[in-house]
From TrEMBL:
Originating organism: Pararoseomonas baculiformis
PROSITE patterns listed in its UniProt record: HIS_KIN, PHYTOCHROME_2
Organism domain of life: Bacteria
Protein name: histidine kinase
rRNA processing in keyword set: no
Family (UniProt): In the N-terminal section; belongs to the phytochrome family.
UniProt keyword terms in alphabetical order: Chromophore, Kinase, Photoreceptor protein, Receptor, Sensory transduction, Transferase
Length: 753
């Protein structure tokens, strides 16, 4: 036989947030406790001094059955009640009258560890703490129901609840205490008689009610401490029995550190009733305090619990109404934004078409849209570089669908410098493929928070025991680098807009994919058509040239000078048309011919090209400047056409220059091998550079420079098929420069710079 130990005895310096307060090993002295095994109903635990309730010392009764320990008429009712006990918490089971003339309120519950637990609270007749009949409680509960039904705002509801509970219980002060998201508590309503100081509007740190205490408030909504100076009564049990779980106990003893907290607060008695949401989560507490010890009957506590439940229903309805009204208002903005996005080529253009709508949607002062194509901002935001840095951090976090914070500097300390415009951030990811984000910013909201004591100054710890803080005097703190919090309706509006954007982007992608497929089919048809037409036209043009020349040879003497001139024009036109058809056929074949790549030295190809162009260089002074060129992986035949076209153009457009300068350089940069070909020829106007690589586009008159206008189109197609790109620069009368790249992945390793 032994008594269960209090947790402070097991580990005197254990942190408050780790105290096992559900197994204190003792109860408060205004009642007695008996616990039985659920299967056999044999006594396993009993509070010391329970002889007053059972007529015998409990030490000798451990292991005895219930019907022997509680003899008489009471046993039958208790045995019947055992079958109805569930996991819902304590149940009032009636009154127990002992042979000594003492009356007890019998309360039973099924403990989480499987024990059937009976508690017997003493009825202190004549002291104001005697059982309260329902006809006395009912008017107070009915009045509370009526008052809660007449008001709507959270503050009015809380005031009505505080007044009702104080009227029912007679406590000196009743507070309605709401938990914030970080578990700080705020006193939003108070009703008192002036015997205790007012705490209305004060904030208390989360550490005042640690996590395991909040968990107990969820599971067991009622807690009474009748006298802060009580002496705990140990629970006796067999050495082999585990400690008793008192989660649902009404007499459960509390940790010494909490009793010291009450003494520091100046409240000899306290009672609390939990305010629970429909999902069972903890919204807040109705907290009652008295300037002298005070016992409250179980029926009265149940009545207060009923008031708390009514308040919870009304506060939930109030919050839901406010949320629904806000969502309805924001839905109109969502619709307008969606309509503009659907009409715009890029969704960000639609979002920012009317910036006020985008900002009003979340109550932000600034917003930014960051996509792969750029960063666009509106309103008051950090500089673009900082916005991009925030987006990069979001991408590193895996691109969360929604992220909200009212203190961005807690997440990203370097944002303190822009807290004046970006203390708050609401961000949504708008792409599953690319790191794209929609960001809203809120500025710093400097405000003063009044605490119930300085939360930064807990009592100085001693090496052997815990202390709660000792001062509850109002302490004001100026809060900086925080924005107004984002409401649930605003966060949900951002989430819905994200879904809409994803839908718009997906639909646009599907339309682009469909259009791309159609274009690919059309291009294939056009390529096949151009190949067929150009192939079929070659023979007729050759026949025209051949027969015209045959006519000139055999019948030329009979033709007049004008007829011979006409015949020459026919031959020249047919030859030009033939060259055009050959070029068109070559162009169409570029898209049909498979690439056969290999590692090669461009210098060898260039030497061959220069030899083939020697007829065009006769009688001219040309200065070639060919620098070192990197090895590349390419199709040799196609790469030859690239250099042949570019060198041929350079020779053609440098006529009249003495000397003509043609320069070719190569380098390795990043992922590419880059080639630069420059000349000092006729050049071109950069205003027309976008036409340079088009089919049949000419920037000079045909009378000045011959050609069919398809060579550079061929060059671009070849380069792009190799995965590179080409661009040009020029100045009229001063020369041109052509630059093209080939992917560096094809470069030999020993050629790396």
């Amino acid at each position: 036989m032994r008594a269960e130990e209090e947790p402070s005895g097991a580990d005197p310096i254990l942190g408050c947030d780790r105290l096992p307060i559900h197994v204190p090993g003792s109860i408060q002295p205004h009642g007695h406790l008996l616990a039985f095994s659920a299967e056999s109903l044999l006594l396993t635990h009993a509070s010391e001094g329970a002889v007053a309730a059972i007529g015998a010392e409990p030490e000798g009764r451990i292991g005895d059955p219930l019907d022997q320990i509680l003899a008489g008429p009471a046993t039958e009712s208790l045995l019947a009640a055992v079958r109805h006990l569930g996991a819902a918490g304590p149940m009032q089971l009636g009154r127990l009258h002992t042979p000594g003339g003492q009356y007890y309120q019998a309360i039973g519950h099924l403990a989480p560890d499987g024990h059937v637990v009976f508690e017997f609270e003493e009825e202190a007749c004549g002291s104001g703490d005697s059982p309260t009949p329902m006809d006395v409680l009912y008017p107070g509960v009915r009045d509370a129901f009526a008052r809660l039904g007449r008001v709507a705002s959270p503050e009015q509801l809380a005031s009505a609840a505080a007044e009702a509970v104080r009227r029912i219980t007679g406590f000196d002060r009743v507070l309605v205490y709401r938990f914030e998201a970080n578990w700080d508590g705020i006193v939003m309503a108070e009703d008192g008689n002036g015997r205790l100081p007012s705490y209305l509007g004060l904030r208390f740190p989360a550490s005042d009610i640690p996590a395991q205490a909040r968990r107990l408030y969820q599971l067991n909504p009622q807690r009474l401490i009748a006298d802060v100076d009580y002496r705990p009564v140990p629970i006796l049990h067999a050495p082999s029995s585990p400690p008793l779980d008192l989660t649902f106990s009404t007499l459960r003893s509390v940790a010494p550190v909490h009793l010291e907290y009450m003494r520091n607060m100046g409240t000899p008695a306290s009672m609390s009733v939990s305010i629970l949401r429909a999902d069972g989560s903890l919204w807040g507490l109705i907290s009652c305090h008295n300037a002298t010890p005070r016992r409250v009957p179980f029926a009265t506590r149940n009545a207060c619990d009923l008031v708390a439940q009514m308040f919870a229903v009304r506060i939930a309805a109030s919050e839901e109404l406010a949320y629904s009204e806000a969502r309805a208002r924001l839905k109109g903005l969502e619709g307008r934004l969606l309509a503009r996005m659907a009409e715009a080529l890029q969704f960000e253009e639609g979002l920012l078409a009317v910036p006020a709508d985008l900002l009003t949607l979340t109550g932000a002062a600034g917003a930014a849209v960051v996509t792969e194509s750029g960063c666009r901002i509106t309103g008051r935001t950090p500089p673009e570089a900082e916005v991009r840095r925030i987006a990069a951090w979001l991408a590193e976090q895996g691109g969360p669908e929604v992220l909200e914070t009212s203190c961005l500097s807690n997440l990203l300390p370097w944002t303190e410098s822009c807290a004046d415009v970006a203390s708050g951030l609401l961000a949504v990811s708008v792409s599953k493929l690319y790191p794209s984000f929609l960001l809203w910013f809120r500025p710093e909201l400097v405000r003063t928070v009044t605490w119930g004591g300085d939360p930064r100054k807990p009592a100085e710890p001693e090496p052997t025991r815990l202390h709660p803080r000792r001062s509850f005097a109002a302490w004001a703190e100026t809060v900086r680098k925080r924005s107004a919090p984002w409401s649930a309706a605003e966060v949900e509006a951002a989430r819905d807009l994200r879904t809409a954007i994803m839908g718009v982007v997906l639909r646009a992608a599907e339309e682009r994919a469909e259009l791309t497929g159609r274009l690919e089919r059309v291009n294939k048809e056009l390529a096949a058509f151009s190949y067929s037409v150009s192939h079929d036209l070659r023979a007729p043009f050759r026949h025209i040239v051949g027969f015209a020349e045959l006519l000139r040879d055999r019948e030329g003497e009979q033709l007049s000078e004008r007829g011979q001139r006409y015949l020459g024009t026919i031959v020249e036109a047919a030859e030009t048309a033939g060259r055009l058809v050959d070029a068109l056929l070559n162009f169409s074949q570029m898209g049909r011919t498979a690439l056969v790549t290999m590692v090669l030295d461009p210098g060898l190809i260039i030497a061959e090209v220069r030899r083939s162009l020697e007829p065009d260089m006769e009688g001219r002074r040309i200065e070639w400047r060919i620098g070192p060129l990197p090895m590349v992986r390419a199709d040799p035949a196609m790469l030859r056409q690239v250099f042949e076209n570019l060198f041929s153009n350079a020779l053609k457009y440098t006529r009249g220059r003495d000397p003509a300068v043609i320069e070719l350089q190569g380098e390795l940069t990043g992922e590419d091998a880059v080639f630069h070909l420059r000349d000092n020829g006729a050049g071109f106007d950069m205003a027309y550079a976008h036409k340079l690589f088009g089919v049949f586009q000419r920037l000079h008159r045909a009378e000045e420079f011959e050609g069919v206008g398809i060579g550079l189109a061929n060059v671009r197609r070849i380069i792009e098929r190799h995965g590179g790109r080409i661009w040009a620069e020029g100045k009229l009368g001063e020369g041109a420069a052509f630059h093209f790249t080939l992917p560096r992945s094809g470069v030999l390793p020993d050629q790396d710079p």
